[in-house]
Amino acid sequence: MLKINYKDIPLFGDSKTEIEGLPELQGSPKQIKWAEDIRRDFVIQSFRSFKEFSAQIKKYYKNPVASKKMEDSFFQYMEERVSSTSAKWWIDHREMNSVVAAKLADELGWRKLFKK
Q1: Which of 27, 52, 103, 104 sits at a 20 to 30 Å CA gap from 75?
Q2: How many contiguous H segments (helices) and E segments (strands) does the chain have?
């Protein structure tokens, strides 16, 4: 199980924060450097999207059970995504940062949790 400290991730501004708890990447030094940047950006963007989406859910739906399910599913999703240690995998999937919010909602099935 990953031990990412999400409290250290800034919700605004600079996304160059170092993220503790991610597994070491495998590949050439150049691949690793590039993949670390990609992975860091993915984690930060995902977490920011989650926090924004979560705030909207709490504001409009006021459903603590669904909010907890959403939070649990987000952290499970993140653990599955960031557990890849292949620098090549991160480089090959670098475009996923641009659609992270929509993919999170779809892949986790959050919309089903909040139907009225």
Answers
A1: 27
A2: 5, 0
β-sheet bridge partners, residue 86 = 26
Contacts of residue 4, defined as CB under 8 A and 6 or more positions apart, other chains included, come to 19, 20, 21, 22, 43, 78, 82
Q: Which tokens in the block code for residue 29?
A: 């030094």
More reliable by pLDDT, 45 or 56:
45
Domain boundaries, the chain: 26-113
pLDDT of residue 87: 96
Q: In angstroms, how far is the first alpha carbon of the chain from the final one?
A: 34
- Please report which confidence band the pLDDT of residue 40 belongs to, taking 50, 70 and 90 as the band edges: confident
Question: Measured in whole angstroms, how far is the alpha carbon of residue 35 from the centre of its chain?
Answer: 15
Question: In the numeric block, which tokens belong to residue 51?
Answer: 């926090």
Structure tokens at 1: 């199980």
- The label of the residue with tokens 């924004």 reads 52
